[in-house]
Amino acid sequence: MKRVRWRLLAVTAGVALLAACGGPGPSAKPPGQSPTAVAPAESPSAPLPTPSPSARLPSPATRPPSPRATATPSPSGAFLPVGLLGTEWSRLPTNSRIVALTFDAGSGAQGLTNILAALKAAGVPGTFFLTGEWVEKYPDGARQIAAVPEHSIGNHSYDHPYFTTLSAAEMDGELLRTQEIIERATGRNPKPIFRFPYGDSNATTVAEINRLGYGSIRWTIDTLGWKGAATGQSTSTIRSRVLAGLQPGEIVLMHVGAAEDGSTLDADALAGMISDLKSRGYGFVAVWDYVEGLVAG
To answer: Which run of H or E residues covers position 117?
Structure first.
C-alpha cells in the first residue's frame, strides 16, 4: 500500500547551500559497509520541535496534511526541511529521549527476517536505507519493510560508491535511479532522507543531494556488527556501544546483511538493545516521521 507523504518545508530556488560537515575519506571497507567512526554533526542552536517519545505519530495514511503557507518547491520539485540544508545529521536535533534505529541494506539480507520480527515484537519503528541493487536483488525483502507503515525507507545510492569520487551527473544518476527502483518495488518515495555510502561526503556532495531534495542522515553510533564475530565483536559489545553513546536523538547504525564470517550480530543484538534503551526511558522514532514531525508537530 502506497504510503502518503505530506510535503515538508521547501528548498526555495536560489537558497545558498551552507558548507557541510566533511565525511571520512575513502577507506578499505567491504561493499555495503560503513566507516567505524564519525564525528557528530553540530546541532541547531535552538532545538527544533520533536514528537513526544511516549506518543507515536498517527499512521501516514490517516495523518491530515499540515498548512504549508510558506512552502515552495525547489527546481527539482522536491521539498526538504531547512534544518537539513547544507549540513548532515549525526543525531536528531532534539532534547527528547528518543532514538532512531537505522539499518543499511547494501549487500545481503541474512538478518532481515529477525530484525523485522524484533521490531514488531517490541512495537518499535526502524529506518531502512536501501541501495537500488539491494532492492533489485531482494524485492520481497523491500516489500516486507514497506508493508509496515511505521518503518521509514531512505535512499542509499544504487551501487554503494564513494560519492566524493563522482561527478554531479553521476551522483544524480545514483539517487534518481534508486528512487525509481524503490518506488516501483514498494510504492514508497524515499525522499527526503539519504545516507552516503561509507559516510563519504563533503560540501559538494551534500549540496548536490540537497538540490535533488534529499538531506544527509549519518549516525551517532556504529555498532560495528558488520565486522563480525571473528573480529571480536559480539551482541554484548554492540549493546554496550549503543548505551555508551546514548543521548537524546541518538542515531544507531546497523546492517541487514551478514558479516564476512556469516554472523548477523546486529539482528541478534536488536531485541536486547531495544530492551536496554526502554529501561533507560528512551522511546523510538523512524527518521522520516521525525523529519515530518518537525513541521506537523
So the answer is: helix 112-122
Nearest residue to 219 (alpha-carbon basis) of 118, 106, 49, 103:
103
Query: Taking a C-beta distance cutoff of 8 angstroms, is the pair 210, 17 a contact?
Result: yes
DSSP state, residue 108: -
pLDDT tens for 180-225 read: 999 999 999 999 999 999 999 999 999 999 999 999 999 999 999 9
How far is it, in rounded angstroms, from Cα 234 to Cα 51?
33
The single residue of 200, 255, 266, 268 carrying the catalytic annotation is 255
Query: Per the residue annotation, which of 104, 200, 222, 289 is the catalytic one?
Result: 104
N- to C-terminal Cα separation, the chain:
25
Cβ atoms 293, 83 nearer than 8 A: no
CB atoms within 10 A of CB 95: 12
Among 25-39, 171-185, 204-218, the range scoring the smallest mean pLDDT is: 25-39
Neighbours of 52 (CB within 10 A): 13
Q: Quote the CA–CA distance of 238 and 224 in Å, as a whole number.
A: 7
Distance CA 112, CA 135 (A): 13
Q: How confident is the model at residue 291 (pLDDT cuts 50, 70, 90)?
A: confident
Domain ranges of the chain: 104-296
Give the largest CA-CA distance in the chain: 55
SS3 of residue 277 by DSSP = helix
Q: Is 289 a catalytic residue?
A: no
d(CA 139, CA 183) in angstroms, rounded, equals 11
151 is catalytic: no
Helix 139-146 × helix 112-122 angle, to 10°? 10
CATH 3.20.20.370 fits 104-296, yes or no: yes
Whose CA is closest to 72, among 15, 5, 8, 12? Answer: 12
Closest to 289 in 3D by CA, of 135, 114, 74, 61? 61
